[in-house]
Amino acid sequence: MDESLIMEGAIRPRRLRTSRALRGLVSETAVRPEQLILPAFVAEGAAEPRPISSMPGVVQHTMASLRAQARRCVEAGLGGMMIFGVPEHKDATGSGALAPDGVLNVALREVREEVGDDLLVMSDVCLDEFTDHGHCGVLDDHGRVDNDATVELYAQMAVRHADAGAHVVGPSGMMDGQVGAIRAALDAAGHLDTVILAYSAKYASAFYGPFREAVDSSLTGDRLAYQQDPANAREALREVDLDLEQGADIVMIKPALAYLDVIRAVRDHVDVPVAAYNISGEYAMIEAAAANGWLDRERAIDETLLSIRRSGASIILTYWALEYALRNRP
Ligand code: PBG
């Protein structure tokens, strides 16, 4: 490149920014509603939707309001809905997760009935919403999460979800071997087409804070013994490789914003679709700042989703999915 051309003003990158039409013409990245997934909470026995104070605008749904929300997702052209159940009663083994009339299994059945194949019905395969100690699995005699016993429960849970109508199951507990066990159980039950969206690289993050309120979690302590250390990026590639060897169809990185480098590294490392979860704390930060008038809410949301897309995730789980799709209708 001849430096003198810049000095003389012949090369002017600003030229392509001069109008909305030009900016649109040269835009490199777009967030597509059909690749957005709305995470949604449903509370057992709720008579009215219950607001979640740390996530303004997000609620614990009733069965009826969840169905109505699913319908809105279809109309907005979203890709799917990831459903989390909040049971009335929790116990040490999270037995509500396996009960066919447990809140999540009922919700999956109802939403699938509502949307058919017009929206992907997705489930979180994890025990933390169902256990009274709040951990993602069952505990051994020393109070540690028992990996292999937990994986067996996940496999049964995934089959229940597929039986109930889930198109996609999302194992999120970070137990070793969970994807392979779930794939084998699904196949044995005849659910050959049920997709596994693996939460492959899931970090032990402070940004899950508001989610704990969203699912009435009773967790004390932390998940450092099973979720990943925020210091480690290479380890994410190893987790992704293991999940792919075990049959994952889509791999996910979570959280998104503090891990954009990990999203990029995974995108460059694999050939399967890559998803990212724009989590509760990332939502809460922007909502809280906007409520204080400290930033322009809609621009901050758009920029956030664009950054996740640009870093390499084609699929984004975000609590803004519906709003974004409605606001950006063609
Ligand atoms: C586990 C699960 C969690 C989230 C999604 N699935 C919580 C955790 O791992 O501690 C967090 C999502 C969010 O913060 O928005 N069931």
UniProtKB/TrEMBL annotation:
SMART domains: ALAD. 5-aminolevulinate 1 binds at residues 212, 223. The active site is at residues 202, 254. One of its GO terms (molecular function) is porphobilinogen synthase activity. Mg(2+) binds at residue 239. Belongs to the ALAD family. Catalyzes an early step in the biosynthesis of tetrapyrroles. Binds two molecules of 5-aminolevulinate per subunit, each at a distinct site, and catalyzes their condensation to form porphobilinogen. This is Delta-aminolevulinic acid dehydratase. It comes from Naumannella cuiyingiana. The lineage of its organism: Bacteria, Bacillati, Actinomycetota, Actinomycetes, Propionibacteriales.
